[in-house]
Write a structure and sequence with these properties.
Helix content is about 20%, strand content about 40%. It is of the alpha+beta class. It folds into 2 domains: about 1-30; about 40-105, SH3 Domains (SH3 type barrels), CATH 2.30.30. The longest helix has 22 residues, at about 5-30.
Length: about 110
């Protein structure tokens, strides 16, 4: 197959652009430490408060709506019971805001 003069340059340019796009997509699925992101979803219909520290008295950073996807970072401390649910405080990221939420109100299923 013979390409018109100038077409091969356009094709090469498009291939380079596509390779960068696919790399960005792959990178968005990794945490900073290189591990694959783990997602969780907000369960309570009323949403879930994102807090600065893993305690009920800590400053509120955001109210995350029901069904929203968050990135799981880590769990901390012993299991506790809050509002009848048993779980651990969980560090998550929502809309580029890192904070703590009570893990019993997070689900691994949408």
């Amino acid at each position: 197959m013979k390409l018109r003069k100038g077409c091969s340059g356009i094709i090469i340019f498009l291939l380079i652009i596509l390779s960068f796009c696919s790399k960005d997509k792959e990178m968005s699925n990794e945490n900073i430490d290189g591990k694959a992101k783990v997602f969780r979803y907000i369960v309570p219909q009323s949403g879930l408060r994102l807090r600065k520290e893993p305690t009920l008295t800590a400053k509120r950073l955001a109210l995350i709506p029901c069904g929203a996807q968050v990135v799981f970072v880590e769990e901390k401390g012993e299991e506790k019971v809050i509002d009848g649910a048993k779980g651990k405080w969980t560090k998550i990221i929502y809309n580029n805001i890192s904070g703590w939420a009570f893990g019993a109100f997070l689900s691994d299923k949408k």
